[in-house]
């Protein structure tokens, strides 16, 4: 069966909720949930690309996660971010998988550690030529902040406000529209205007599974659900 017949979404966006609740359920500190969740990022991204997904966007941390959580939790979270995105090992892994990595949001303002800045910038630069697999990490991201920043940019540059200029001014401007949004954690709601422009016509998939328990089999379920919906829509 060809890729088109399989109805694979071109672009999946994930809101990975439930790390802290998973940790509490295991009697562990909150940072252990984030650590387990970062392992899932690796597993699920590899499975998504193997399934034929071209763009995967994951909301790794909101502005609130990096500004308002307890200091020890933020410290642990930034350490996990550094390990996953800003080390030689991380760079080698993404280059080996031929994955283009983008990191979008206010992370440069909210994370002050210089080695993280240097590592992420190097990762983005050295994977920028890959095209088949595209991983976007939303870090220090808030959809309302993204929209406000876009409108401020258009105002300052004195452009006419229309759909094309607004989209072009977004942090996520280079990404295609999202076909499927997956939210884990059993609380089916939206948060902070998440990618509000790109998800205008997305299919939504909510699961009770907490993110640290969301594996490749759970991703398969989401893809099967998406395929069945697309077939019902006659696409």
Q: Could you describe the 3D structure shown?
A:
The chain has 235 residues and is α/β, with parallel strands linked by helices. 50% of the residues lie in helices and 15% in strands. It contains eleven helices and six strands. The protein has helices spanning 3-6, 19-25, 30-51, 63-67, 71-85, 88-96, 107-110, 114-126, 143-156, 163-169, 216-232, and strands spanning 11-15, 55-62, 99-104, 133-141, 180-183, 203-206. The chain has a six-stranded parallel sheet with strand order 3-4-2-1-5-6, sandwiched between helices. Helix 5 packs parallel to helix 8 and helix 6 (88-96) packs parallel to helix 8 (114-126). It is globular.
Question: What is the topological layout?
Answer:
Blueprint (H helix, E strand, L loop, with lengths): L2 H4 L4 E5 L3 H7 L4 H22 L3 E8 H5 L3 H15 L2 H9 L2 E6 L2 H4 L3 H13 L6 E9 L1 H14 L6 H7 L10 E4 L19 E4 L9 H17 L3
Parallel strand pairs: 1-2, 1-5, 2-4, 3-4, 5-6
Helix pairs in contact: 2-3, 3-5, 5-8, 6-8, 9-10
Question: Brief overview, please?
Answer:
With 235 residues, this protein is of the alpha/beta class. The chain has helices at residues 3-6, 19-25, 30-51, 63-67, 71-85, 88-96, 107-110, 114-126, 143-156, 163-169, 216-232, and strands at 11-15, 55-62, 99-104, 133-141, 180-183, 203-206. The chain is globular, with a radius of gyration of 18 Å.
């Amino acid at each position: 069966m060809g890729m088109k017949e399989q109805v694979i979404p071109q672009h999946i966006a994930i809101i990975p909720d439930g790390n802290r609740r998973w940790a509490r359920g295991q009697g562990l500190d909150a940072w252990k949930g984030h650590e387990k969740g970062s392992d899932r990022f690796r597993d699920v991204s590899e499975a998504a690309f193997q399934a034929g997904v071209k763009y995967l966007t994951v909301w790794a941390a909101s502005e609130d996660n990096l500004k308002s959580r307890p200091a020890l939790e933020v410290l642990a979270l930034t350490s996990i971010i550094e390990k996953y995105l800003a080390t030689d090992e991380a760079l080698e892994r993404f280059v080996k998988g031929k994955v283009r990595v983008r990191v979008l949001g206010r992370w440069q303002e909210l994370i002050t550690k210089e080695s993280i800045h240097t590592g992420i910038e190097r990762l983005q630069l050295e994977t920028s030529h890959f095209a088949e697999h595209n991983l976007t990490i939303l870090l220090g991201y808030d959809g309302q902040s993204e929209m406000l920043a876009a409108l401020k940019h258009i105002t300052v540059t004195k452009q006419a406000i229309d759909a094309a200029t607004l989209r072009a001014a977004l942090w996520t401007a280079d990404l295609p529209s999202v076909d499927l949004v997956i939210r884990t954690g059993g609380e089916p709601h939206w948060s902070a205007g998440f990618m509000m422009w790109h998800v205008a016509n997305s299919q939504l998939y909510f699961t009770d599974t907490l993110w640290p328990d969301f594996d490749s089999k759970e991703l398969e379920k989401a893809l099967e659900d998406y395929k069945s919906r697309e077939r019902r829509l006659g696409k």
